[in-house]
Amino acid sequence: MPRQYFALALLLGSSFGATAGDAGNFHLDIPMLTAPAEIDGRLDDAVWQQAATTQLTIETGPGENTPAPVMTDAKIFATQESLFVAFVAHDPDPSKIRANLSPRDRNWGDDLVGIKLDTYNDARLAYQFFINPFGVQADSIENELTGRESDAWDGIWYAAGEMTDKGYQVEIELPFRMFNFDKASAQEWGFELIRFWPRDEVHRLSTQARDRDNNCTLCQLGVVTGLENLEQGNDLQITPSLVAGHNRDRELPNGDWQDETDVDVGVDVRWGITPDLLLSATINPDFSQVEADAGQLDVNNTFALFFPEKRAFFLDNKDYFDTQMNLVYTRNIGDPDYGAKLTGREGQHTFGALVANDTQTRFLVPGNLSSSVASIDKESQNLVGRYRYDVSSGLSIGALTTLRKAGDYHNYQFATDIKYQPTDQDTFTAQYSVSNTQYPEGLYKEFCGDSDNCEIPPGGCERGDCDINERVLRLLKQEDFDGDLLRLRYQRETRNWYANLHYQATSADYRADLGFVDRVDFNKFVAGGGYIWYPEDATFNRIRWGGDWDITHNDAGEELEREIETSLELQGKLQSYMEMGLVHRSRVGLREDKSILNIEDNTTLFHETFGWFYGEFWPAQTIKTRLNMSYGDTIDFANNRPGTNTRFRPGISWDVMDNLALDFAWEYRSLDVAEGELFNASLGDLRLNWQLSLQSFLRVSSVYTDIQRDPSLYLYSTPDSEYKGMFNEVLYGYQLNPQSVFYLGYSDGFRQDDEIKSLTQDEQTLFMKISYAWLI
């Protein structure tokens, strides 16, 4: 049966099963009051005396629903506009409380209290809010459908904390305007109160038990009632912004400085039309990224690097567009003039639509062994549409479409997906997507490298006769082409056992240019499983051992890879977490200067055996260390031959003072071939954050790269023997809330290579941003 018909049969023929789990046994009725509380961390407002009270009496980790080792009291009430929560966190030794004045969303590892809310009580999405003893906020969204959690979302809410001689206490206000929820007059929300108590181990304390034999966590939330006639006000947020920057750059070694000044005024509008329908729009948007991405070494890589989205407009209700595959990757929309987004939910129906232009059109051109980035000097129009129907609490079916067009280029995609949980332990997911693409004339020349022969000779090409293989030329020259993707996955997870089967088939002509699909022309099957132990009173409180086997072919039936892997995961004392594994595989190599789309002239099969390790632990209350390393066989992709890879990446996070934090990571990589060391590369990434107050900070970042090569060992090219680069940034910020901000920063860049004998500055930037969110 063709895979598209098999996918359709699976999507339409699934039974409409029962829920994957029950809703938990914790229930709390929240009183509706008229007076709010003042959020100052003191809990001295009279209104708290009328609040509902409860305690976090259960430890869900590492203990398995055992009595909580410390006492935590909680109070909760609501007005028509906001939900108010207070925690009193008792501690037998307050001197060991871990708390730092840190940036928003960076307080993980501290003592924390928080709340999880599923506003539709259907185990699909949950908002999470956590606060440390100094009132530092962290928020995120847990998505049960994709199995992912994102802390990129930022809501506007209020919190304050205060240390006491018996522990600490926290007050929180969560305005209902932040949430999407049903329009019903009486609400019933999924709910959990949580405390993280980090000592020798991290203790997770809760209001309710968690069943480890149930792989759906949101299905096990408790329920709160009593919320009635909630109001979001006008729920209109208008955020004007001013961004100004002056940039200087030059061509090295002797180019003159070129100056450019840019001032942009824009406005974002966020309108909650109803509690479950949100409209976001932007004109001349500020899509500047204030903080530099973490450094990555791009050596001996054949696939494009992935960077997370950080821009507020795209992150608002981002989860409405997520599917099992990364088919919507909004960083592909690099420089828009406008954008609009509508997201909503009505009963069992969830939907979203996004439209934006892009003055710079960039997209991935993927293959089965590598990918590359292409660009078109034309404005593109971009559209994303998403719909999901929740048939029952255990079954969801969705559809997604993306459209991108710029002149004679286009990429259209349509996808369907399903998630089905017939039992607490079993999960089936499937996704099928089709695409139609047309590349602009001449795009293929971007992939010819230094070749002077980019044309098909009369009569066509035989293998080895053309500098770039015939299939690439024909694909990039034809009017348009169609492709498809099929992904099937089954998982079974019990308390102690887990198993999974995975199959993915992606045709050579499939494209998802508004997503991040960097590999095509492959069919992969994976089977794996393992066992989990939970030792009591031992060095490690959780031990997981497992492995998998996989095999991959291209569309022509040629084997690309066959792999077997085993791994061990340990969690325990000193808040330690370790993973280690051993891999043996056979796979096909690829010369970097050859075709990016298939392996016609690269059929050598290489055999690799290597080991890897990742670990992190807290040797002291203020110091966290981590180490990532691997060693063993690899492929020298530049020359299509075997080599030996060494990779070593240690890191440290040090809370120098309560408000001063240092984070440093260093990565070293080397590749040895039979004739000697082909290259060694190192990268240092230093971040220093001085948190002046809850609202303001001063941040210094520096990324240094050093790559040394032996050009005599390169068979097909002559690279520079050395490259050095440095990027520095100094940033001052004041954040009244995530959308009301002031930033002032300076950054510069330096470069050195065989022609430029010392680190020489080639870029300088001075920038400022002001924005203010008017809540109407």
UniProtKB/TrEMBL annotation:
Domain DUF5916, first and last residues per copy: 256-337
Carbohydrate-binding domain span: 39-194
Pfam families according to UniProt: CBM9_1 (PF06452), DUF5916 (PF19313)
Keywords recorded for this protein, A-Z: Signal
Domain of life per record: Bacteria
Keyword 4Fe-4S: no
Claim: Nucleotide-binding is one of the keywords in the record: no
Signal peptide: 1-20
Protein name: DUF5916 domain-containing protein
